[in-house]
Structure to design on (147 residues):
């Protein structure tokens, strides 16, 4: 709630966003169909709307697709996935929000979203940053596309 944690993600998308970096400000509302819950872009003044902002930056791109860095400025369920789909760049492997199931001639083994870095206040160290390397399946798909 205090926005003291900074989260950075990496994702693979089928085409680079245009512009190559920016901020997405689009309110979200949780909706349910049966036992499934998902998020939908709604007008800021719609009933149940929650303000939501995400930043994105293209790290690598070619004719196969792109790797983007994502930073949620708010913490809504599926926020990054919905925001990227909203700008026409759903994440590879994201069946729920329209992402491709194949990429660079290969099947996407899962949703291609990776929690890369977390920066947060630490009681003794001031701020602490933890980084995680890309999982092998993410790195393999990225390499297959020459990204």
């Amino acid at each position: 709630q205090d926005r003291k944690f900074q989260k950075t993600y990496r994702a693979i998308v089928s085409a680079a966003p245009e512009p190559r970096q920016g901020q997405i400000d689009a309110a979200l509302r949780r909706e349910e169909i049966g036992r499934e819950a998902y998020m939908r872009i709604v007008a800021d003044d719609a009933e149940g709307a929650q303000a939501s902002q995400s930043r994105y930056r293209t790290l690598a791109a070619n004719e196969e697709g792109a790797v983007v860095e994502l930073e949620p400025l708010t913490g809504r369920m599926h926020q990054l996935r919905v925001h990227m789909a909203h700008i026409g760049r759903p994440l590879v492997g994201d069946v729920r929000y329209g992402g491709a199931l194949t990429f660079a001639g290969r099947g996407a083994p899962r949703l291609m979203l990776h929690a890369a870095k977390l920066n947060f206040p630490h009681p003794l160290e001031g701020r602490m940053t933890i980084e995680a390397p890309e999982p092998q399946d993410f790195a393999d798909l990225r390499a297959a596309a020459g990204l």
In short: The chain has one domain: 6-25+53-144. The chain has two helices and ten strands.
